[in-house]
């Protein structure tokens, strides 16, 4: 199980591979995950934004968790498995969070409830109830997707809950992490906005959940370690060299560019997405291939 001490380092949010007919491609998933096993990451995140959570059924998520646990075990690895269980309904979020625990997940990534635009009190109550499940909970703050922004006070209140072990900050800036660190919040905050990774580390982030770390994983790990060792100039140099890739991967909706690259590299059988997500433009394909040197 994850806790507030071991939630740190680089986590890779995994894509959900689909066959050309749109069904889950378990064979491609196993191949892709086996390739990730060769890298020195802290863990994987299933059913995050990168995993196309809105169009993946809970049965499919369960299958991905089972496959992931089997592969990690067969490789003799100790990788942490975080599963996205958040919905915009407290009841179903609690149910999924408990089911993720039963499947062997180490923590649940719970997005701030989207679409309904609940009050700050409603959001805090949502997390209080989910935290009572006993599953370690990571709060996922991504206001440009949810339509509602956590206030600093609400974020601090939620982070103070027993059972909430940390936060993934995709708030689109440094204001939230800076304010929480000013309040001496000790629970780990992971960067969830790739372009801000270095800035978040500068403000005390404990690591990152970064879609771009599917590519050039070792370089992201180097940035993290160099920064940890106080070698900020070298960390900045390494990070600068990652910025063109990050910019391309987020130029069109994540994870479409990443899926295209993974299929271009032969790790996925196709770059199929489920509607309303669409494949990337030809212009971006050309730029991505050039950036990756193939
Ligand atoms: O899959 C995730 O979790 C991530 N989500 C962010 C987003 O696209 O909103 C980006 C981050 O790299 C990983």
Automatic annotation (TrEMBL):
E.C. designation(s): 4.3.3.7
Protein's pathway: Amino-acid biosynthesis; L-lysine biosynthesis via DAP pathway; (S)-tetrahydrodipicolinate from L-aspartate: step 3/4
Chief site of localization: cytoplasm
Positions with a binding annotation for pyruvate: 50, 209
Transmembrane segment boundaries: none
GO biological process, one term: lysine biosynthetic process via diaminopimelate
Gene3D superfamilies: Aldolase class I
Nucleus in keyword set: no
Superkingdom field: Bacteria
Gene Ontology terms, MF aspect: 4-hydroxy-tetrahydrodipicolinate synthase activity
Task of the protein: Catalyzes the condensation of (S)-aspartate-beta-semialdehyde [(S)-ASA] and pyruvate to 4-hydroxy-tetrahydrodipicolinate (HTPA).
Designated name of the protein: 4-hydroxy-tetrahydrodipicolinate synthase
Organism: Paenibacillus albus
Protein encoded by which gene: dapA
């Amino acid at each position: 199980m994850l806790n507030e001490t071991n939630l740190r380092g680089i986590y890779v949010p995994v894509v959900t591979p689909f066959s050309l007919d749109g069904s889950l491609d378990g064979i491609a998933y196993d191949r892709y995950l086996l390739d990730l096993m060769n890298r020195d990451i802290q863990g994987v995140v299933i059913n995050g934004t990168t995993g196309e959570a809105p169009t993946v059924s809970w049965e499919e998520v369960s299958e991905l968790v089972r496959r992931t646990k089997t592969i990690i075990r067969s490789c003799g690895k100790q990788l942490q498995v975080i599963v996205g269980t958040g919905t915009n309904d407290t009841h179903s979020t609690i149910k999924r969070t408990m089911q993720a625990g039963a499947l062997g997940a180490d923590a649940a990534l719970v997005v701030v409830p989207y679409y309904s635009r609940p009050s700050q009190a409603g959001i805090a109550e949502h997390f209080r109830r989910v935290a009572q499940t006993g599953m370690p909970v990571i709060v996922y703050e991504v206001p440009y997707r949810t339509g509602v922004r956590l206030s600093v006070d609400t974020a601090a209140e939620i982070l103070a809950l027993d059972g909430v072990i940390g936060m993934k900050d995709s708030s689109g800036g440094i204001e939230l992490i800076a304010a929480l660190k000013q309040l001496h919040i000790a629970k780990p905050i992971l960067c969830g906005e790739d372009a801000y990774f270095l800035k978040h580390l500068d403000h005390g982030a404990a690591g990152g959940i970064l879609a771009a770390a599917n590519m050039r994983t070792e370089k992201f790990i180097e940035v993290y370690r160099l920064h940890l060792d106080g070698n900020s100039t070298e960390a900045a140099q390494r990070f600068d060299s990652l910025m063109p890739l990050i910019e391309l991967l987020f130029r069109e909706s994540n994870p479409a560019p990443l899926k295209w690259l993974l299929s271009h590299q032969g790790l996925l059988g196709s770059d199929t997405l489920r509607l309303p997500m669409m494949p990337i433009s030809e212009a971006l394909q050309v730029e991505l291939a050039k950036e990756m040197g193939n």
